[in-house]
Backbone:
């Protein structure tokens, strides 16, 4: 899909997730004349405006009108184009919820959605601009693929993969100031296939988005200080979820914790729980995220700390789960 | 695209046939949105039998004109039209609304041959039609998009978001109709949530407005000709219609927004359609 392009490592220290995807879209636009881009007065905030500057005839700003944004995108997809739509997650998943569901998913259209300011990443803005419900909402739409990249580099991979992936795709990113994790795009990103970032046999941390980097740091710390072997999985695709990786983790480590910047109901944790429950295998399990409340106001790093999504919080949660009394025999037959 | 007297007579007979088909499907289905289906029969008949570039043997042809029935509850009329046009066998509509039928009351483009866009939830069709029109423009295609809105549907905010965009982007390759039958489920549009001054609202959003008798093939054709010639502003045709048109006991009666028909009522309804007079 990227033949002919030179994929350099983005200056991820200074470029935000959104800036990187804006750059990637510009590159993809050269190869794919069918790509058009749309936004709702968020061309600059989301960086999709970069595409608009390069391809003005293929960029449409519909103003502050998100329902129309996704309806227009659906019509464009019906005409044979591949619309890439970007606006804030809150207005994608909630203001235009029905258009995404009925116009795009019901008709299984080739629309790629890049939802910015996901989770509590725009923490200062308050609840109206937080979006800790989108993964739950999007996961429940038939035909929808849901991706939460760990950083800008993975966002680049996700956007490129989404263009080649048939049907609607929801890519959820942050506000843009999330620290980078990956140094290169070349780590084998594939939609629906998770990435093991740290090996471990005592406990598995399944993460997405900003929690990925923090979990890897926590795993290193716990190895060094607690002599714990902590597996970290970057579950960048929430749907379709990598069931094999979850089931291996259940078998190998018997203790699982999920970390996500989302309500603990309905997102990554719930998707993982579904797989565990259906397997009939027992394990210690905890979902960490926003504990079914509207998120506090504050800078994202303070919020991640408050909700145990930073390294310290993750270490604390792992110690808590490791301290639980849990049957660890090898006989699975009595648990099915 | 002038229209001859002979063509008008043909279209009027076709419209009567479609109305009787709608009556049959309503009988088979146990209940359908017959009132609003009847009011848009002339618009659909004119599009499918004179104006739109369509080939039922190639429903996915890229160069075809697109038709978006934004008032998706008109599905019973839309289905009757598509069957008559040859997209599928009319007898398939005996299963309308039934278990696993491709034909629910709001038609699904994935299941029904000839349906360009799935509609049903109101306020969705015009945004998608604007997207289709812009899609044609981006791809430098000359096919047109026709969209039929319900008047009650125009309570939805998303209709006006799309109207703003159509005016802004000057989508003159989009021809929009409003089936102005003045009734919605709960009563008269002007009593439930007033739309007037309706034409002024569309003008304010950047449209050239044509108000016509929505049952007159002559007037509808003139308005479409003006729309096809437009270069600055998209045209909207406010088609003044009668809900339940053609069936005397349904006309302008809000109770026939949705209803079922027994054998006796089917006979009476068809007899009424046979007695319909033409509109100038």
Residues:
């Amino acid at each position: 899909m990227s033949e002919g392009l030179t994929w350099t490592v983005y200056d991820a220290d200074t470029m935000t997730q959104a800036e990187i995807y804006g750059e990637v879209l510009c590159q993809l636009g050269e190869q794919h004349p069918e790509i058009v881009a749309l936004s709702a007065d968020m061309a600059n905030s989301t960086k999709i405006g970069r595409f608009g500057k390069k391809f003005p005839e293929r960029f449409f700003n519909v103003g502050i009108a998100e329902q129309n944004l996704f309806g227009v995108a659906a019509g464009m997809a019906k005409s044979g184009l591949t619309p890439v739509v970007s606006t804030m997650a809150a207005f994608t998943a909630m203001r235009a919820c029905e258009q995404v569901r009925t116009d795009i998913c019901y008709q299984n259209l080739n629309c790629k959605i890049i939802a910015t300011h996901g989770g509590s990443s725009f923490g200062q803005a308050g609840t109206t601009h937080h979006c800790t419900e989108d993964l739950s909402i999007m996961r429940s739409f038939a035909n929808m693929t849901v991706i939460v990249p760990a950083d800008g580099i993975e966002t680049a991979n996700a956007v490129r993969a989404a263009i080649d992936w048939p049907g609607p795709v929801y890519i959820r990113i942050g506000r843009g100031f999330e620290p980078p994790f990956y140094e290169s795009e070349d780590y084998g990103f594939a939609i629906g296939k998770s990435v093991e970032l740290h090996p471990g046999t005592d406990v598995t941390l399944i993460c997405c988005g900003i929690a990925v980097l923090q979990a890897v740091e926590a795993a290193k710390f716990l190895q060094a200080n607690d002599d714990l072997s902590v597996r970290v999985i970057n579950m960048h695709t929430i749907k379709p979820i990598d069931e094999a990786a979850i089931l291996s983790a259940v078998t190998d480590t018997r203790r699982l914790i999920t970390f996500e910047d989302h309500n603990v109901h309905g997102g990554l944790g719930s998707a993982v729980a579904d797989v565990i429950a259906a397997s009939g295998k027992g394990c210690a399990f905890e979902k960490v995220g926003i504990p079914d409340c509207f998120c506090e106001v504050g800078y994202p790093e303070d919020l991640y700390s408050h909700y145990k999504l930073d390294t310290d919080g993750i270490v604390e949660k792992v110690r808590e789960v490791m301290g639980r009394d849990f049957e660890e025999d090898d006989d699975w037959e009595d648990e099915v | 695209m002038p229209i001859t007297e002979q063509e008008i007579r043909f279209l009027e007979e076709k419209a009567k046939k479609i109305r009787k088909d709608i009556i049959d499907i309503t009988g088979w289905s146990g209940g359908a949105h017959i009132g609003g289906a009847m009011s848009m029969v002339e618009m659909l008949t004119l599009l499918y039998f004179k104006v739109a570039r369509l080939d039922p043997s190639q429903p996915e042809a890229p160069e075809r004109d697109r038709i978006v029935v934004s008032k998706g509850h008109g599905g019973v009329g839309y289905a009757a039209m598509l069957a008559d046009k040859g997209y599928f066998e009319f007898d398939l509509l005996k299963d309308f609304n039934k278990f696993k039928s491709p034909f629910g009351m709001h038609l699904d483009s994935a299941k029904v041959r000839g349906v360009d866009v799935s509609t049903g939830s109101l306020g969705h069709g015009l945004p998608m039609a604007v997207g289709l029109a812009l899609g044609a423009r981006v791809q430098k295609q000359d096919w047109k998009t026709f969209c039929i809105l319900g008047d009650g549907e125009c309570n939805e905010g998303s209709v006006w978001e799309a109207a703003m965009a159509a005016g802004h982007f000057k989508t003159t390759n989009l021809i929009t109709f409003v089936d102005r039958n003045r009734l919605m489920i709960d009563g008269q549009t002007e009593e439930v949530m007033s739309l007037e001054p309706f034409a002024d609202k569309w003008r304010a959003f950047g449209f050239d407005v044509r108000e016509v008798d929505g049952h007159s093939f002559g007037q509808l054709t003139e308005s479409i000709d003006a729309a096809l010639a437009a270069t600055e502003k998209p045209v909207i045709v406010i088609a003044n219609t009668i809900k339940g048109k053609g069936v005397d006991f349904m006309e302008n009666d809000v109770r026939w927004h949705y209803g079922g028909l027994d054998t006796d009522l089917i006979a009476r309804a068809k007899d009424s359609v046979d007695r319909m007079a033409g509109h100038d």
